Amino acid sequence: MYQSEFTQFINDFLAKHPDVDSQRRELRLTWWDRPQDLDDLRRWKESRVQQKPYVYQPD
């Protein structure tokens, strides 16, 4: 099966440095896999200011 040079490099790097993968998973849990507050999301969408079709044209 074909693997690009980059994929080979990443697989080799992760094999030599197993702590990097565990740190990556830990940081992902810290920043991305969090419960979402739907009320906050709704308020952010409602408070967004609509952009004009052409922002450089004065009204």
What does this entry look like structurally?
With 59 residues, the protein is mostly helical. It has one domain. Helix 1 packs across helix 2. It is elongated and about 60 Å long. It starts with a helix and ends in a 13-residue tail after the last helix.
Topology:
Elements (H helix, E strand, L loop, with lengths): L4 H12 L1 H14 L6 H9 L13
Helix pairs in contact: 1-2
Give a short overview.
This protein has three helices and no strands. The chain has 59 residues and is mainly alpha-helical.
- Low-pLDDT regions: none
| Global structural class | mainly alpha
Subunit arrangement of the protein: single chain
What is the overall pLDDT average?
A: 89
Q: How many β-strand runs?
A: 0
How many individual domains? Answer: 1
Order of helices and strands: HHH
Largest sheet: none
How far apart the termini lie comes to: 59 Å
Proportion of beta-strand residues: under 5%
Which value, in Å, is the CA radius of gyration?
A: 22 Å
Number of helices: 3
What is the overall silhouette? elongated
Helix content: 55-70%
Keywords for this structure?
59 residues; mainly alpha; 3 helices; DUF3460 family protein
